[in-house]
Amino acid sequence: xxATEKSILSRLYIVAACLVIFAGAVLFKLVSIQVVxxxxxxxxxxxxxxxxxxxxxxxxNLYSDDGSLLATSVSKYNIHFDAVTVSEKDFxxxxxxxxxxxxxxxxxxxxxxxxxxxxxxxxxxRYALIARNLDYSDYMAVKGFPLFEKGPFKGGIxxxxxxxxxxxxGKIAERSVGYERVDENGYRTRVxxxxxxxxxxxxxxxxxxxxxxxxxxxxxxxxxNIVEPKDGYDVYSTIDINIQDIAHHALLKQLEHYKADxxxxxxxxxxxxxxxxxxxxxxxxxxxxxxxxxxAIGESHEPGSTFKLVNLVAALEDKVxxxxxxxxxxxxxxxxxxxxxxxxxxxxxxxxxxxxxxEVSSNTAFAKIIHNNYKxxxxxxxxxxxxxxxxxxxxxxxxxxGKPVLRYPGDKGWSGxxxxxxxxxxxxxxxxxxxxxxxxxxANDGELIKPRLIKEVxxxxxxxxxxxxxxxxxxxxxxxxxRKVQQLLKDVVEKKHGTGHGLYSSNFSMAGKTGxxxxxxxxxxxxxxxxxxxxxxxxxxxxPKYSCIVVIHEPxxxxxxxxADVSGPVFKSVAQKIYATSPLIDEVxxxxxxxxxxxxxxxxxxxxxxxxxxxxxxxxxxxxMDAVSILENLGLEVEVKGNGRxxxxxxxxxxxxxxxxxxxxxxx
Length: 668
Description:
- By secondary structure, the chain is α+β, with helices and mostly antiparallel strands.
- 37% of the residues lie in helices and 24% in strands.
- The chain crosses the membrane at residues 12-31.
- This is Penicillin-binding protein.
């Protein structure tokens, strides 16, 4: 055989061998993929075409103390159309009847829906949007329409369900009700009661399989979930919606009048610590007010003269003074080192008793009492305050509680002026709720109770967990001291020289203390000097049922800034209206009927509202609670159908109020 033929034949053998080896390798890989890695690649293929999605459960409802809804989860539905799964016969027969039904339900044109359906059929669209954000009744109606009634495989209906959290009270108590939000990274933001009690409200997620039909588009497989979601428990709060409404509107009215930056009101049941109302309103750049932040719980600030009660209790407990001890107010100016302590009254009050010094809120008297009696042993003073738990947080479940500030001798910021400054509420800091807890303890003869926002957790009618009264300190002071200062708090309002006498009412008794504190006082610019006005106390004075604090920041100085003028009237309005709607004590003359008290309590409020409106206002889109409040205050009888926000009103806006007796609101 010639050499050339041998060479060619050798090459052919080599090529054939290579082909055999390559074929063997391919065969081995195929066997490996099929047998060894088969399950892995099948799973990978499935993940690219099907995917397990989580289904958020319905959060439990959040209720007020009487069972009224504060927050609830409402299911919303999006309806899509899969034009590929429907047979030509079914589509042709049902496209017009389906379009007619959709048009009738959504008040549109049949041709509009025919165009959407036919275009989806033509483009083989498997996820054409038909309707968005349907409530349950509309969703059930759509499910029964021609073609869609055949289900997802024959009828092409694709249902996407989600839950939306709604607050029937609208903006009232919005920060206290709160929310829980989850960002794209899974980070949770928890605010208010919704956040604090999320472990009960949130429930357990479900699972559902969806198939990928296009880029970033997934269609649910079938109608059933793989794992059904478990709804959260219902939480019953301590909030009383009537008291909340009273507190909200009383605060709003005063903030608007004084053009203040922000403010808060808290009403607490004295014996139990149940918070019945907590309102926080902040000002926008346009001068409107809304629940911006939870100032009542989160904002720690210098309390000013409301802190004099703490100092009075401390000095009485240490027996360095008695209520009859005489103090010289130094003509309203007392110099300590290079600093002057001044009274609000020019010329001071002369030589007065400790009792009167408290009633007139003399800064010089209290600065002398605390400085002169503790300057040799300031640790004794601070230790006494600590024994009353002034330095501790209340330990609330709601996140963001402000930290109280109480310096100890030797700490940074402590100086020779500290005792005198602390005597009338500077160089210390407390939140409004922390201050109220102390006043509430005095009303309880010294028992410090933890403020409480929740009563119980339920699953349907079964109680899962109950929350009872919690005592933080059984005795912050002796009963003797508590009784003495109770009388002085009462005298602040009842005696003519008391700083709170302008709040006095012969119909019911109140006890409390005014407070006026400077902000930005270290600045030399007088325009930057701001004020905090406050009033803290309880009512009725002799048998307290509720304690209350009102704190208003940065009122317009040209209008007024003293606590008695700015915050005191809010306290009185809240107390008066609560009292008018639910009499609290037996000592009232029975001739003073509920109707008379209601008329007296609301007379000013009715007048101000009616001056603004002579015609029926437009309340569409408002929360039912807000709408009813406005319309009833205009003297109308209101009938409500449904829950949520106002969808329609039976009397159109602009109608003369004199011609209207009753109005019907439909809520969605």
